[in-house]
Design goal:
Blueprint (H helix, E strand, L loop, with lengths): L19 H37 L1 H7 L10 H31 L4 H11 L13 H5 L3
Helix pairs in contact: 1-2
């Protein structure tokens, strides 16, 4: 008796290798999901902090929300300006660090980067039945 698909050139397994377009779609969906989760977390943190500040001292909160003669800039305008500059510095800092690592490794594509990282860091077994020994996992190649 022959196994299903033997001798006919049809693979026994019904699973096929993912197409490049499927892989790209998966990455795009993953990026959208992570971006949504990050945005929701940031919004929740901002709203929680804002409500806590208003609850703690409502009179100071109301004074900071409008510009006066003593304070030419409202607290919210100052906070938005600080958020803008902080975001710019964070994005530029991560970009510079990423660029420096990219140039220091001497890679020219993401495939080169992946192979370089795989040669530097230890491999992670997909299905390990025994617990990982830290000495073995942390030793360099």
């Amino acid at each position: 008796m022959e196994a299903a698909g033997s001798g006919t050139g049809v693979p026994v397994s019904r699973q096929e290798a993912p197409k490049p377009s499927d892989d790209r779609l998966f990455l795009v969906k993953g990026g959208i999901f992570l971006g949504t989760v990050a945005a929701a977390g940031m919004l929740a943190g901002f709203v929680t902090t804002l409500s806590l500040a208003k609850k703690k001292s409502p009179e100071w909160f109301n004074k900071g929300s409008m510009a006066t003669a003593a304070l030419p800039e409202s607290g919210s305008a100052l906070a938005l300006r600080a958020l803008g500059w902080g975001s710019l510095y964070a994005w530029c800092g991560v970009g510079v660090i990423s660029f420096a690592v990219w140039k220091a490794l001497g890679v020219h594509s993401m495939k080169d980067f992946r192979s370089k990282m795989q040669s530097v860091f230890p491999t992670i077994p997909k299905n390990s039945k025994s617990p990982v020994e830290w000495e073995e996992a942390l030793k360099s190649k």
